[in-house]
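Entry for heme-A complex. Fields follow.
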Amino acid sequence: MLAVACLIAGGLWIGLHVNLLPDSASVNAPIYDELFKVLFSIGAILFLGMLGLVIYSLIRFRRRDGETGEGIALEGNLPLEILWTAIPAVVVLFVGLYSYDIYERMGGMENMNQSSHDHSSMKTEQRIWGGIGASTSQLDSQRGLNPLPVEVTAMQFAFLFHYPQGDILTGELHVPIGRPVSMKMESNDVIHAFWVPEFRLKQDVIPGQPTILNFTPNKVGKYPIICAELCGPYHGGMRSTVVVEEPDAFDSWLSKNSKQTASET
Amino acid sequence: MTSLTSAETTSAKQLEEPKEHEDYRLFGLATFLIADGMTFAGFFAAYLTFRSVNPLPEGSIYEVELALPTLNTILLLVSSATFHRAGSALKKNEARLCQRWLLITASLGIAFLISQMFEYFSLPFGLTDNLYASTFYALTGFHGLHVTLGAIMILIVWWQTRFPGGRITSQNNFPLEAAELYWHFVDGIWVVLFIILYLL
Amino acid sequence: MTFVPSSEINNNSPQSLQPKGWLRYFSFSLDHKVIGLQYLVCGFVFYLIGGALASAIRIELTSPISDFMARDVYNQVLTLHGTIMIFLWIVPVVNGAFGNYLIPFYVGARDMAFPRLNAVAFWMIPPAGLMLISSYFITGAAQSGWTAYPPLSITTPAAGQIIWIISVLLLGGSSIFGGINFLATILKLRRPGLKLMQLPMYCWAMFGTSILVVLSTPVLAGTLILLSFDIVAHTGFFNPSLGGNVIVYQHLFWFYSHPAVYIMVLPAFGLVSEILPVHCKKPLFGYTTMVYSIMAIVVLGLVVWAHHMFTSGTPPWMRLFFTIATSFIAVPTGIKFFNWVATLWGGKISLNSAVLFSCGFIINFVLGGITGVALAQVPFDIHVHDTYFVVAHFHYIVYGGSVFVIFSSIYHWYPKFTGKMLNENLGRFHFLITFVGFNLCFAPQHWLGLNGMPRRVAEYDPQFTFVNQLSSLGALLMAISTIPFLWNIIQSIFKGEVAGDNPWEGLTPEWLTSSPPPVENWNGPAPLVTEPYGYGAVKKEALDETTTNKTESPKQTE
Ligand code: HEA
Ligand code: HEA
Ligand code: CUA
Ligand SMILES: [Cu+2]
């Protein structure tokens, strides 16, 4: 009993205090970190528990020198087996429902076909495949925030960002802090993936099938954009930067670059 | 291989040679056909998904005629029945009759293949024209390959039944049973294929 | 008591025409034991090659820039590494090698149901493997990863990709033939009087695995055929520029490749269930629940594939369904792990190399399984998909799981295979450096993935240099660990202590014959073993009958 209590306390402590994650810089990152802490705690408890049991049995029940004979003829124990079917089932059910809740809070269950993007700008009326993002558009529009649309094109081996507002084409993503960004992504050649670890977000960029990714940055800084899907020899070099800046700085960047299509560094 | 299965036991009753010989070869074939059926299932699933999410680009043609395929369906269904006749004839030791039914079955299969060729030549689209066309040819082609193999098998079985006391007799009719099972399987796949490719 | 003399059995598989002695291991032998060892040795050679490739990967990753090999060569190396390790090492060994060697013993048969098919299945592997590897030297190997996602696999050089497809098709075919053979052997060739629920657990594991093989491998074959059409005949199934759909490929691929992970691990589960009771001298805990959990894993394993595609733009309901289904696999798997711990509990455990590797497996796999359940949660996976976190997850399972079990099984059955004992001290030393090296190599990769290192890259952010070097150091230890193992294996054949028929006092049928066993498995009639785990109070009459009396305290009968 005491051992179990210690185990749970220890697991929780590890889960809550050991930080394995990078900086958090978007609205859904803290939500993600919450999930991570829960999963980490549960995982730590289960793993340390199993580790302890195995090591304890190996030491306690080891065959000592010169010892003969056999172990006890225990072939099973129904209540025990039911117990350890039930406990993982409950844990797993909890984890599943909890992560569903997290997913919903991140905006994952939103119907992506009703995003802020103007459908007429698309080549064809294609089905849009959902991404994820913590900027539920109803919520944002209630708060009077209209998302910043960005069109992303991925190709071997670069990302291109197009701002319909001001018609800017750039290789580096600039976004203002606090305002939701809605990206429509399409690939020219093979599958790529848009990943910003500090945003805890990733979405494949697929040829022939636009995808949507929404997020709201909430910390000023420069973060790496990483291509996370094998896309050829220079896959490892397919990186860019997202610059999260104060709205003023962003506006001046926007007006400085407006109408000029030269790419920016 | 006859006594491969002989797992001897202590009691005299169980010592009798378990007559599972044919049985587990047919079992093996049936398992293989399940596997083969999964290949088709994969193709069907791909085709159905393509149809539900990928609209045909404008200007591409994908139209199938119904007349020839319906004839094909009838040919195959009848051939299943004739094969069954061949099998029961052999069981009754009527080798002659069995051979006749086998030949009829084989010719029906070959007729199917010829008619399929006709269809291929009359279709308004080619292999690489569009997604549905490619899948259509992949599926019917893969099935046609099965029919070809089946027809060859039937002819081999027919050849072997011609020698009295030879490879295939009413006691040892595994090759015939195997070919029959395979043939029914190929027919069954065709029915599904017909429904999915032509009727849907 | 009569039995058919061995000369009469197998009159259709002319052993007399086949080479004798060591030469038979290089021949088209129909003996299931020879085929099993052929699988094992062949697989191990490929493991060394795959491991050499892994070492090349780890050397490249000691520095953040791409300096050790060209970038496209790196991609070829990692594709070859993944393909070789999965299709030429784990799958053939846990299924083919141990399955062929043990299953006929366990069902009380003298060979597999279809000995010829069996030999054919084995002999498809070496040419496929050689072809795959030689493609590197001739045309350049495939470079789109072991998943070969189009459109990348359509646009990279075609020759290598086609060779890759052909060899995977051959290996898949070999695997299907093997699966059919196992199903027929287990279901149809069982010795009269032996009930299904009396079979050793490995039979059940192979039964479940073979169902998965038969149901899912053909789908992979079909998919790869379509892919090859795209490459050669310029059809557009998976080519978006011709109107194709790349996501369909992913669904079809994972419909095979997720069950494939259970094809790699279920037999390993079975092997552990054989090894632990023998060395703990205790019955396997919870036989019935073990059987049901295998079946549950088989069923669930077929409906969780899309958890590899959470970021591919699948619709929300689909992500949710696959999250829940995947998470639930932890329940039957958990049952098995708790049952093993309960098998240890109260036993008389000999701390030999076989047990150490099995327990190492339990520990590593639990960690890998827990990260797996975390990965199954969509919001979690969105961040770590295609990063080193995933690499860490699956190496914990395939290496820490399956490979550890393979080592454990070699330590356990080597006396049966060769009639000689292995050196225990070398074995324990091998375990120690493997365990330390393995954890040093892959534990830090969790952190790498969480912090932003994607997988399949030859160059990375310099902030990760140190941790990558740690990981490479671990890989070095793993490479070193093969030396004591190989030395042990080779010198024990010549100098090892003579093992005797049943050195571990096992109760399963393979121990009730000589070591190595005769061609027909038993010189006498096949024994009827209805209590494969009858340790403790349940007596082991079968053992006492066939082996010379050991010094044992008399035990009460049931
Ligand atoms: C033998 C191989 C093997 C096995 C057995 C598993 C087992 C599992 N795997 Fe793994 N997996 C791979 C090999 C394997 N995997 C490979 C190769 C990849 C990468 C492919 C690629 O992209 O190249 C992969 C990738 C992969 C992904 C995709 C990650 C991504 O690309 O983003 C996911 C996501 O759900 C996943 C989940 C799981 C789960 C839930 C299990 C479960 O079966 C684990 C169940 C086990 C346990 C949970 C431990 C024991 C249980 C207990 C002690 C009970 C208590 C536990 C709880 C209540 C949680 N795996
Ligand atoms: C299935 C089994 C399996 C096994 C056993 C292993 C074993 C190992 N793997 Fe493997 N790995 C995969 C399956 C496996 N891997 C898969 C499926 C992928 C994904 C591929 C993809 O993305 O497509 C992968 C990818 C992968 C990566 C990621 C590459 C990338 O994404 O960029 C890394 C990196 O560290 C790695 C490392 C290792 C190491 C260090 C071992 C070590 O455990 C190896 C230890 C063994 C040795 C070190 C042998 C040493 C022997 C010698 C050196 C002697 C040589 C002599 C002769 C040849 C005669 N693996
Ligand atoms: Cu683009 Cu990887
Ligand atoms: Cu999976």
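NOTE: Helices of chain B lie at 12-15, 21-53, 67-91, 95-122, 131-161, 174-199.
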